[in-house]
Structure formats: structure tokens, C-alpha cells
Amino acid sequence: MMKALIVDDDRTLSDLLAFTLRRAGFETLLAFDTPEAIRVFHQEPVDIIILDVNLPGESQLRDGFDVCCEIRKTSNVPIILLTVRDEEEDIIKGLNLGADDYILKPFSPRQLVARVQTVLRRAGEGQILSSAPFTIKDICFDPNRHEFTRGDSDPVVLTRLESQLMEVLFLNINQVLPTTSLIDHVWGPGGATQEMLRQLIRRLRQKIEIDPSNPKMIQNHPGIGYSFAP
């Protein structure tokens, strides 16, 4: 049985989410603030985290964004953010910190279950499809470990979304991939905007390019898409 960690300070909503996910076949754990979220996460292995952005916290873990960032230091467990903030800036911030998806409040129980199942399916497909490490010149990308290495340098750890983007780029070296194709591969059809893709590419460039301000590997083709030329 898959296990979900629900992190929200609204206890009534948390109970409703737990009931909904239990009916869908999940075991559930609850946390109501940022310290408790981190404590439960380290105590209990989980398959997915549903994390409210507007959590009460403390100086070092102020909100759900900080919890997401802290978890991403050690784990690629799928994370879905819950938020009432419908501005694209906040959504992109969460995705840039490593969240896999987001749901705007209010939402229906059916929508929650569908999004949880979609994120878990994408994560599972990524594990199934991932193969032996890709190697070209002095570059190595390991899709199973989510690591990118150049020469003798230490591996750079990628988030799940960064790794999925890196994999499709490696599979299509020197080919221009339309933005819609990249979005479909990383998030699923219609799962993200072009701005969210741009932010993901910007973050990936920060990790893999020698000079991110003058990228050589991930190249932009205005009005069309991107290509990968290692």
C-alpha cells in the first residue's frame, strides 16, 4: 500500500484529504506545521507528499516552500503543492524548488486523487524507462540516480523534473524539440506553461553549463523550442 504524507495546518481539510486518499487505497500520515513535516518525513518513508504552501513555521523553515527545499536536499519523493496563490510567479517558485505539481485551492477530492495518481505514474514511468547512464565526450548523465557529471568533477544532483528534461534532451541530441513536446514529456499533456518550461531550463542550465549566462549545451530556438548539443 502506498503511503502519502499530508502537510496542512487546516486540520479539517487534512482529515478530508486523508479520508479521500484512504478511500483511493493509500495509507496516510499527517503533519500540521513545518517542523512536524520534516520530523515525520525523516521518521516514515513515504511515496508522495501533499504539501500546503502557507504553513506556519519557524525562522529556518518559514513555510511550505522551505519544507520543499529541505526535503529536496536528500530526496526525490514526489511533492504536490497546495496553494491559494494563483499567480504564476508563486507556482514557478515551487516548481523551481523541486515540486512535481501543484493544485490550486479550492479543489475537489476527485481532482486530488487524479493529480496524485498522475504524479506517481510519471515517477514510476521515469523509473521504468530510465536506462544505463548516457555518456558523451566527458559528460555522463545517470537517469536512475538523477546525477549529471562532467569529467572528474563531483556529480550534480538533479530534481525529478530536471532529470526528466535531461533524459529527453539526451535522447534527442542535436535535434530541435518543440516546447509542447518538452512540456508533454516532463509534465504530461497541457501540464505546464511555456514560462514554467523556461524556468526549468534556466535551472538546469545553472547546474550543467560551464557558463550559465552563455549556455552552449541547451540552445534556444525562438518560436520553436530547444536543442541539446553537448
Kindly list the characteristics that best describe this protein.
2 domains; 4-stranded antiparallel β-sheet; alpha/beta; Arc Repressor Mutant, subunit A; Rossmann fold; 230 residues; 5-stranded parallel β-sheet
Overview of the molecule:
With 230 residues, the protein is of the alpha/beta class. It folds into 2 domains: 3-127, Rossmann fold; 130-228, Winged helix-like DNA-binding domain superfamily/Winged helix DNA-binding domain (Arc Repressor Mutant, subunit A), CATH 1.10.10.10. The protein has helices spanning 11-23, 34-43, 64-72, 88-96, 109-129, 160-170, 179-187, 194-208, and strands at residues 3-7, 27-31, 48-52, 79-83, 101-104, 134-136, 139-142, 147-150, 156-157, 177-178, 218-221, 225-228. Strands 2-1-3-4-5 form a 5-stranded parallel beta sheet, with helices on both faces. Strands 6-7-8-9 form a 4-stranded antiparallel beta sheet, with helices on one face.
Can you tell me the CATH architecture of the largest domain? 3-Layer(aba) Sandwich
Query: How many beta-strand elements?
Result: 12
CATH homologous superfamily (4th level) name of the largest domain: Response regulator
Determine the oligomeric state from the structure.
single chain
Task: Please give the alpha-carbon distance between the first and last residues.
Answer: 42 Å
Name the average pLDDT.
Answer: 88
Main-sheet strand order equals 2-1-3-4-5
DSSP strand content: 15-25%
Which class of secondary structure composition applies to the elements?
alpha/beta
Radius of gyration, CA atoms, in whole angstroms: 18 Å
- Give the ordered list of helices and strands: EHEHEHEHEHEEEEHEHHEE
Shape: globular
Q: List low-confidence stretches.
A: none
